[in-house]
Amino acid sequence: MNEREGQLRKILEHERRLGCADKAVIGGIDRYLDRLIEQNVFPPASPVGASIRALPRGGYASLGVEERARWLTQTIHLIDGQPGAAPLKAAPSPAREPAAAKKPRRPKASATAGDLSAPVTAVRGVRDALAVKFARLGVETVRDLLYFFPRRHNDFARIRPVAELVVGEEQTLVATVWSAAETTIGRRLRGTEALVGDATGTMRVVWFNQPYVAGQLKTNRQVVLAGKVTLFKGQKTMENPEYEPLEEELVHTGRLVPVYRSTSGLPPRTIRRVVKEALDSFADALAEPLPPEMLTRLRLTPLTTAVRQMHYPDGWERLEAARRRLAFDELLVIQLGVLVRRREWRERGLALPLPLPADVRRGFVGALPFTLTSAQEKALEQALADVAGERPMNRLLQGDVGSGKTVVAAASLLAAAASGRQGAMMAPTEILAEQHFRTLCGIFGCGDEKAPVAQVDAPYLARPLRIALLSGSLPAAEKRAVRESIAAGEIDIVVGTHAVIQGSVDFAGLALAVVDEQHRFGVMQRAALREKGVNPHLLVMTATPIPRTLALTLYGDLDISVIDEMPPGRKPVETRWVPPEGRDEAYAFVRERVGQGEQAFIICPLIEESETLTARAAAHEFERLRAEVFPDLRLGLLHGRLAAQKKDAVMRDFRDRRLDILVSTAVVEVGVDIPNATVMMVEGAERFGLAQLHQLRGRVGRSDAQSYCLLLSDSPSDEARERLQLMERTTDGFALAEADLRLRGPGEFFGTRQSGLPEFRAARLSDVRLIELAREEAARLLESDPDLQRPEHEALAREVAAAWERVTAEAH
After folding, report:
1. 3-class SS at 191?
2. Of 201, 307, 414, 791, which residue is the least packed, with the fewest Cβ within 10 Å?
3. What integer is the mean pLDDT of 29-43?
4. pLDDT tens-digit profile of 604-645?
5. Phi first, then psi: what are they for 696, rounded to 5°?
6. Residues 107-146, buried b or exposed e (16+ Cβ, 10 A)?
7. Helix, strand or coil for residue 183?
8. d(CA 635, CA 626)
9. Sequence-ordered strand ranges (E) for 80-234
């Protein structure tokens, strides 16, 4: 007798003892038999299998008590290898089928087990109302359900006798039910109270607001209980534990039990039941995307096993092996995608070489009003080497706030102009585009920064350099004139917003495109900019320090330059965490700095007040500060709901010192340069990520004056206080970015869903070695099969195509 036969025999014997009342198994004997049929535990040709299938269409539940007893005895004898009793007289209806088959509109899961794209209602027990609740969690198909991995697991695997249970700990025991009854707990609350025990003692178990449990706990039945042990009047007690009959396959107790994200009306037991049903019925239909050779060489768990173990692991080691396998899959798909994009970029065709003559380079560097840092020199060397070649440059330039990325961009644009070609620089906002326009004019010499076209007489060039500003707010006549000059080749460098990539803008010879704060642009927008020229070189920049693991995934198709040192003489911004009782003192400090002719930012996490959030809102704070705190000062309000022209007007007023204090949301985070601003006050600082706080802090400290960042929090938790104190101690943006990635995850790292990074279910960006392994294997695969056309790579190719289709759609 094997294990499954023994389990079935135990259940059938228990059913006989209960008087054939169909109560030996929660949900009924038929539900248990359905599972045996679906799993083909007892094939039709076997004696036990034939006996199960001999039941009428209505199943065991449709039989009378005498017929039930005869079938139970017959089947037990067959399990024991004995001759059967008198055969069951089947009803004239067709032979028994699983109960779900009785409802043609709801076919049982096994009937469509190969269709993982089927809705979750294909899983037995999931009706439309339940499907709606799962949809709130992003689970709409069977595949979604299989990949709906737990947040964590409760360790209910170690079973202790009653005498060894420790008060205050989560534990598991196997006990016999001595009594169970509905009861009134307190004045009105209905519930269940049971007395259970084993050979070492007894204990009390209570389920609050769950009177129905009493009907499921039959006297003398053995159950598994898992929960926290407390003391009630000196007696060991469990309150609201998980429970299961011992004879059933354990799902909620006695093992590592999954804990899933949930939503209103979706209890944990229901989620576990549905997921287990989906695993039993559909997991075998998962197509293995990895070739057998790779699985063996890397010692990876097969996919079906990994998915099962991710939900219901046999131990912690098996769980980690499953997570490693599934994380590798996610990372491999990403790496294949970025390497294919990298190859396609390089194979687009030859770019125009843009060598910068040595004398022009020396003249450019020598004319700068500052000395380049070694990090700037290295990044400049890499960029100029790229644009001098025939392979199109595809480089990411990342550097902390104020590290001097614009100089590297300027040198690259100069190389294009010196070669008789055009360069373009695109920024996410008009105010930032204007800032770049003024900065470039200053770097190259001097020109009329107020006109849309500036002519700069750089001494190291044989001719004047013409720089144009193209933005949506230009008057129609000026905009038309600028576009005509660009098309005629009379403009060397074009600076603008997304207006640069509109169809009405034509370039005579675009050879280099520079995109600032590139994560604010979609992939398709960057592609449109490239299409303005013939295989132009591309340089993208970001002031967000990017951890190495994120750079390997999100920016794996780019070469990367890092400026990781600040120009000498720059004073670090003094950062202070201000406790709630220090708010008035902080306001006094802001007034003092403004009184000395300086300016201040006050940042709020929300635009308007919320009923569910207690954070201060910019619109309300603006009115309160203007009326009660700073009535004699000039305040402005800036947030994301303002029209673009209004935003730019407010920022210009602040830049031109017509405002003393700017109350704003985090919309000022990127790129804005206000040298006279020396104070950054952040309300609700615990609601921002470390990287975002660092970006906000970078909006001050742009001059020789000492600058300050004040972090306010009305009710910081211990974790929030620790994070804010880390901001006080650390000015290294890369160190903060690494910490932010650990604390918040990649999905929120940029504060934008346009990052182009899929949401990971199993991978962690702290898995440096696994990311590197995935990249190595991706390169190996593409080297042997560049288009993934071999039969063994067919499933993997589908995964890559689907993943990058989603990324492109999000970025678009």
Report:
1. strand
2. 791
3. 79
4. 887 655 444 445 678 888 999 999 999 999 999 988 778 777
5. -65, -40
6. ebbbebbeebebbbbbbbbbeeebbebbeebebebbbbbb
7. strand
8. 7
9. 152-155, 170-185, 189-198, 201-208, 222-232
Selection from 710, 679, 722, 692 nearest residue 583 by Cα = 710
Return the bridge partners of 388, or none: none
How confident is residue 520, by pLDDT bands cut at 50, 70 and 90? very low
Residue 348 CB partners (closer than 8 Å, separation 6+): 392, 535
Neighbours of 472 (CB within 10 A): 15
**DSSP characters for 368-431?**
SSSPPPHHHHHHHHHHHHHHTSSSPPEEEEEE-TTS-HHHHHHHHHHHHHHTT-EEEEE-SSHH
**CA-CA distance, 404 to 374, in Å (whole number)?**
11
> For residue 2, what are the CA distances in angstroms to 35, 80, 314?
17, 11, 20
Cα–Cα nearest to 14, from 36, 32, 39, 37? 32
The neighbouring-strand residues paired with 128 are: none
φ and ψ at 501, to 5 degrees?
A: -100, 10
Nearest to 156 by CA among 67, 237, 94, 244: 244
Measured between alpha carbons, how far is 623 from 408 in angstroms, rounded to an integer? 42
Q: What's the sign of the alpha-carbon dihedral 589, 591, 595, 599?
A: positive
Cα separation, 577 vs 808, in Å, equals 40
**Amino acid symbol at 682:** V
pLDDT at 526 (0 to 100): 55
In 233-301, at which residue ranges do the beta strands (DSSP E only) sit? 235-239, 242-245, 256-259
**Residue 66: both structure tokens together:** 């005498």
The residues, any chain, with a CB within 8 Å of residue 250's CB and separated by 6 or more, are 224, 244
Question: Tokens standing for 668?
Answer: 């000022």
Residue 574 confidence (pLDDT): 93
Residue 540 β-bridge partners: 396, 515
Taking the CB of residue 339, how many other CB atoms lie within 10 A of it?
18
Could you tell me which residues are beta bridge partners of residue 493?
Answer: 423, 467
Count of CB atoms situated within 10 Å of the CB of 462? 7
Bridge partner residues of 426 (DSSP)? 496, 515
Average per-residue pLDDT for the chain: 82
Which helix (H) or strand (E) covers residue 559, if one does?
Answer: strand 559-563
Helix (H) or strand (E) holding 804: helix 794-811
Which residues, at least 6 apart from 456, have a Cβ–Cβ distance to it below 8 Å? 441, 444, 445, 446, 447, 464, 465, 466, 467
Distance between CA atoms of residues 651 and 601, nearest Å? 11
Q: Which two tokens stand for residue 753?
A: 């869903």
What is the tally of helices (H) and strands (E) in the chain? 25, 22
653 burial via Cβ count (<10 Å: 0-12, 13-18, 19+): middle
Q: How many Cβ atoms sit within 10 Å of the Cβ of residue 647?
A: 20
In sequence order, the 6+-apart residues with CB closer than 8 A to the CB of 754 are: 519, 520, 521, 522, 810, 811
State phi, psi for 41 to the nearest 5 degrees: -65, -40
According to DSSP, the β-strands at 170-185 and 189-198 are: antiparallel
CB 676 within 8 A of CB 634: no
Closest to 122 (Cα-Cα) out of 149, 103, 150: 103
d(CA 666, CA 386): 35
Tell me the one-letter amino acid at 581: E
**In sequence order, which residues have a C-beta less than 8 Å from that of residue 282 and are 6 or more positions away?**
109, 113, 116, 123, 142, 146
H or E element that contains 465: strand 465-470
Q: Are 452 and 478 in contact (CB under 8 A)?
A: yes
Hunting for tokens 């101690």 — which residue is that? Answer: 729
